Amino acid sequence: MYIDRRRLYHLDWYLIINGMVLLAIGFINLASATRSIDSGPYNLLLKQAVALFIGVAVLFLILAYDYRLIASYSRHFYAATLFFIVFVLILGTIAGGAKRWLSIAGIAFQPSELMKPVMVLMLANMLFQRKKENEPLNMKDVLLPLLYIFVPCVLILKQPDLGTAVVILLSCLCLLWFVGLTRPTYLFLGAVGLSSLPVLWKFLMKPYQKMRILSLVNPDMDPSGYGYHSIQAKIAVGSGGLFGKGYLNGTQHKLHFIPEHHTDFIFTVFGEEWGPLHALHLVHLQVHKDKPQHERAPRLVHLLRRRGDHLRPVHDQYTDGDQPGARRGHPPAVYQLWRLVAYLNADRRGAAA
């Protein structure tokens, strides 16, 4: 498999290292959360390791291909995922009162989860040209994207899976906002969205979905029913104090007060054992975005500028001037470092000769 080296130079290494740290924390936390289940920790840890291996393989597979080629097949991906979602409604596996899963060769997966990246890929491909031209979208421009958004959302609500449908809808609306809309389009979509909320609440939402929303606002209205999960999660995190009870010393999840503590409520396990302070650090890792690469290495750029003509042909592409074809800013930090090491090695070989 051939991977263009230039793509490696432009990778966001902060994002990659940050993701690796989160993966390590996830495996450590999962080992603690699964100690109290009947099958033991190793079964789920093995599944997570297999999923990680598949994810990394897909990552390198995507790197090996031109992303524009992948984006050109986005509608095929959309149609295939939509087919699986419809197939789930007919022959899906029922779990927890909802028909969301397909089982193939003993491996269960949720097709609605595939729709999240597929929708982002397809909308990005559809709206790329308008963003490139910096033109906001009018009502006519967003009609087709909205149709592509609402069809899977309605089908996913039928499973029913309110959470996934809301995530897909909000992600796609954020993409439209990023591209930019005209003011009348903002006003129209806002008016339609607000006016549809009473209809959605009265006719489309199921009673248990309404209770979930109400218990989110006020868990004490049904402490032994819909509010039980939230109340027990707060008790577990609060019982750990500021710095937690220590790794593997959590009690609330071991005594099964926390439902689904190895999946939906695994953050509660981390908060109980490590405390709210470390939990905030974990949230910070997930939401923090580092500075752009050219802002992270100003001293390295300054050093490269003093290296003479040997590096100047590379650096001239990134001048701040107005020359035709000049690229503004600085070369990517990884590429700068590679060029600097090559230059210093050349100096060392020259001195040895």
Describe this structure in words.
The protein is mainly α and 353 residues long. It has three domains: 1-65 and 245-290, no CATH class; 66-205, no CATH class; 297-352, no CATH class. The chain has helices at residues 5-9, 13-33, 41-63, 67-72, 74-91, 111-132, 139-157, 162-179, 183-204, 207-217, 228-239, 266-287, 293-296, 298-305, 312-315, 333-352; strands at residues 93-95, 98-104, 107-109. A three-stranded antiparallel beta sheet has the order 1-2-3. Helix 6 packs parallel to helix 8. It is globular, with a radius of gyration of 25 Å.
Topology (elements, then pairings):
Layout (H helix, E strand, L loop, with lengths): L4 H5 L3 H21 L7 H23 L3 H6 L1 H18 L1 E3 L2 E7 L2 E3 L1 H22 L6 H19 L4 H18 L3 H22 L2 H11 L10 H12 L26 H22 L5 H4 L1 H8 L6 H4 L17 H20 L1
Antiparallel strand pairs: 1-2, 2-3
Helix pairs in contact: 2-3, 2-12, 5-6, 6-7, 6-8, 7-8, 11-12
Distance between the termini: 39 Å
Poorly predicted runs: 296-338, 343-353
General shape: globular
Helical content (DSSP H or I, runs of 4+)? 55-70%
- Beta-strand percentage range: under 5%
Kindly report the spatial arrangement of strands forming the biggest sheet: 1-2-3
| Count of DSSP strands | 3
Instruction: Domain count, please report it.
Output: 3
Radius of gyration: 25 Å
Q: Note the run of SSEs as H and E.
A: HHHHHEEEHHHHHHHHHHH
Number of helices: 16
Indicate the mean pLDDT. Answer: 78
